[in-house]
Design a protein that fits this description.
Elements lengths: L4 E7 L8 H11 L5 E7 L5 H11 L4 E6 L1 H10 L6 E6 L5 H5 L6 H10 L1 E10 L2 E3 L2 E5 H10 L6 H11 L6 E7 L2 E13 L3 E3 L2 E2 L11 E7 L6 H9 L9 E6 L1 E6 L5 E3 L2 E3 L4 E15 L4
Parallel strand pairs: 1-2, 1-3, 3-4, 4-17
Antiparallel strand pairs: 5-6, 5-17, 7-9, 7-15, 8-9, 8-14, 9-12, 10-11, 12-13, 14-17, 15-16
Helix pairs in contact: 1-5, 2-3, 6-7
Length: about 300
């Protein structure tokens, strides 16, 4: 008889909109026990998922499951980079952008089916000032909203929309000096986004050409724009053509340095993050094993 694989579920108890309890209750009946023997561990603070996953890899777990949103997923991934431990995902966050990118459905039963029957792919990750992200990172309005959103007790897409609407007219565009591909560029931008994957979450596509397997960073800059044009930009995000807007600029690179006007908030996979005014970002090709349903 083939030896069972060891699988560790890392659950963020405060992520997203409270699906974690349903997932935990469903686990005994949905996980294939002929393939896996499992353990569950809970996060207690920021970066705890990284600590747990790193320890899990050292303990020889074959698979570590991130149960949470993009922030939890990013932390889990950062603990198992360049190891033989694969990451699986059960979405339980507010946006679940990376889960969507990997083809992991929000449906709990279908997500478990991928864990039971899927295959392993190796994807890229990226680092910003030495800190890992797997989907997107950004400076500007998106990071500001992520920071405001994280300060509240309630979660969910509706609250995210409310915070976005509240802060929209308050946030000014900023100056960015960019060193990339042997050039120096200057932008007056509302949002500066570093993308490994295509989307923020909830179907908003911020880098239409991005792929988690192409070995490239995809940069999207939303330059200063008249606020009455906002609805058109939002439509473009959900129609997968933000790169066609006159107010957007997109390009690719493997490494980029950005000198910001102010040391404002950054987000890594939707989670607010404090760092220096100057930031350096680079792609880390083929650095993370993930369990998916079909080839990416």
């Amino acid at each position: 008889m083939e030896k069972k694989k060891r699988i560790l579920f890392i659950i963020n108890p405060v992520s997203g909109i409270g699906r974690q309890h349903k997932i935990e209750d469903a686990l005994p009946s949905l996980l294939d026990k002929t393939k896996y023997e499992h353990e569950i561990r809970y996060t207690e603070h920021v970066n705890h998922a990284k600590e747990i996953s790193a320890q899990g890899a050292k303990e020889g777990f074959d698979v570590i499951v991130a149960v949470g949103g993009d922030g939890t997923l990013g932390e889990v991934a950062s603990g198992i980079l360049h190891t033989n431990t694969a990451m699986a995902v059960i979405p339980a966050g507010s946006g679940n952008g990376m889960a969507r990118e990997l083809g992991i459905p929000n449906n709990i039963e279908k997500a478990f089916d991928i864990i039971n029957n899927g295959h392993i792919e190796t994807i890229d990750t990226a680092i910003l000032n030495g800190n890992t992200f797997v989907s997107t990172a950004g400076s500007g309005f998106d990071a500001h909203v992520a920071n405001m959103f994280a300060q509240g007790e309630k979660r969910g897409f509706l609250r995210y929309v409310m915070v976005t609407a509240r802060e929209f007219l308050r946030y000014p565009s900023r100056q960015y000096e960019v060193h990339v591909n042997g050039e120096v560029k200057n932008y007056f931008a509302w949002v500066f986004i570093f993308c490994n994957s295509k989307q923020f979450g909830n179907g908003a596509i911020v880098a239409p050409q991005a792929s988690v397997k192409d070995g490239l960073l995809h940069i999207t800059v939303i330059k200063d724009f008249p606020k009455y044009k906002t609805i058109l930009l939002v439509f473009r995000l959900f129609l997968n053509n933000i790169d066609k807007s006159r107010y957007a600029e997109t390009f690719t690179c493997t490494r980029i340095k950005v000198i910001r006007e102010k040391n404002n908030a950054i987000h890594l996979d939707g989670s607010p993050f404090k760092t220096t005014k100057d930031i350096e970002v680079e792609i880390v090709p083929a650095s993370l094993k993930v369990i998916v349903n079909k080839p990416l």
